[in-house]
Specification:
The structure holds 2 protein chains of 2 kinds.
Chain A (H helix, E strand, L loop, with lengths): L12 H21 L2 H24 L6 H7 L4 H32 L2 H5 L5 H30 L8 H29 L2 H15 L14 H5 L2 H14 L7 H33 L6
Chain B lengths: L18 H21 L2 H25 L6 H8 L4 H21 L3 H8 L2 H5 L6 H5 L1 H24 L7 H29 L2 H15 L11 H7 L3 H14 L8 H32 L6
Helix pairs in contact in B: 1-8, 2-4, 2-8, 4-8, 4-9, 4-10, 4-12, 5-9, 9-12, 9-13, 12-13
The chains are: A mainly alpha, B mainly alpha.
Amino acid sequence: MATLTKSLSRPTLASHLYALWQITVKDWKQYWRYPLNALSTVIQPIVWLTPVYFMGMAFSVNGRAEGFAGYAGTTDYMSFIIVGSAMTNFIMAVFWGMGYALKSDMDGGVLESNWLCPLPRPLLMIGRTFSNMITTALTSLGVVLLGWLFFGFKPTGNVLPALLAMLPMLIGLYGFGLAFASLVMIMRDANTMVDIGSFLVQIFSGANFPVNSLPRWLLPVSLAMPLTYGFDAVRGWLLGTKTLLPIHIEVYILLGSMFLLVGLGLITFKALERRVRMKGTLGQY
Amino acid sequence: MEPTLSAVPASQSLSHTTLGAELRAFRMVVWREWAHFIRYPSWIFALLIWPIIFPSTYILSARALSGPDGSGLGRFLQTAGTENFLGYIVIGTLVWMWQNTILWNVGFALRGEQMRGTLESNWLSPTWRFSFLLGVSPVQVIIMLVFIVVSILEFSLFFGLRFNANLLSLLLVVLASLPSLYGIGFVFASLVIAAREAGTLVQLVRGLVMIFCGITYPLSVMPIWMQSFAEWLPPTLIIRAGRAAALTAAPPAALQGDLLKLLLFGAFWLITGYLAFSFMERRASRRGTVGQF
């Protein structure tokens, strides 16, 4: 009797796209299953922006942060923060969408069965962020609108180049997200890792302040992160802030890091995924 | 002759709960919490890294707002009454993190069991059900005390923070804070059983604390109505008293007003916590939603 060595599945591009769509629909349904989530999406920007606004007031005279201008090249502290907050939402979406989603599948006991599907596993991971990305885009838009209505957000530069500069940053972020999710597979405590990881990235990439205000011993960490140049370039285009390097060089760095991060992310994910399968710890938590 | 099972009236429970049994059950809940805490090695990172990274966001922002020449500090001195924004922010954020940890850990205690599917079976045991919630607190208090010590050490080491503290006052502030902070945690845990969306509720409550309690700025920069509301939130009082005790060596007598209010809030929140738990427990049992998630 002949041994069956060939897979019975016939994956195609269409079947992959269909799977992505189904994952997105599933996550979207799950999101709306808990309606307070949507309320949280509205509340979050207010919760993070209001204290920052008051803190800015404690250091400003007539709404102008003169001290801050020494580092950022603008006295408009709130616009600086609002751009940072809107972009940070995407970082969070990747961290929570990839790292935490993996853990919740482990907890729910569906990870192993999902991974039996004839689909590339990185695709499954990326699929988990799509629904999240839609809500994130809406939230970011909300942040900008709120900022404009209540906190005096005033973009003075070009929107289109700023958006284009974000693209390689986001794609690179996906690569990083894959590597990060693989670590969650090994460590299994996603909450702490996602929380700490996203916070550190947020701090060192300059989401909340210009990185040149960091103490000298911390500055190299910040300069080594591609995201720093993403934040810097977008603010440079949008608000006319003082950038760390000429903007076109920052865009080259973003493009180069995009390929590097995606490559490294895929390699790390494949290696660690193989490791957990060999050890049989995929379903453990 | 020994009574047979059929001889026991159906209305009478077979369990014989005693104080000793309740204490043993409580001890086991505490032990379980501890075992669960140390089960995941990432707690070491959390305990070492969280105390420094959360306040750092605000400290580094304040540093940027001060400017390279320190020109923003004059305005901060006017509004906050101190140039020591480092100590000011560290105390504020420590209290916020304390409240946040309680909301996540105590607040999630029952929800976590619901998710794991152990709540129903635990509640079937002849144990005072409030023990399952109360037993979470001792481990949390110990972890939080270690957390505070680690924070102080790290800020002294990395940022050169120096305190001018009255230790007795500081101890009194910590002790007076416990009832209200944990009482709020108990109310929260009970709400989560009904709402089943703990994450959102945490964000809502910690958001209120973050906005109103002046963790990184003086209350005087807020509108008057916000300042009045803030006075009703225990973390506002804890932060104010904590800053006075840790940064200006205020004696206990100077903190008398805030400490007294904290104790009153504490009594209120503990009682409310117990009543909320009893109500939600009955409600969930009647509706059959104890095991749902």
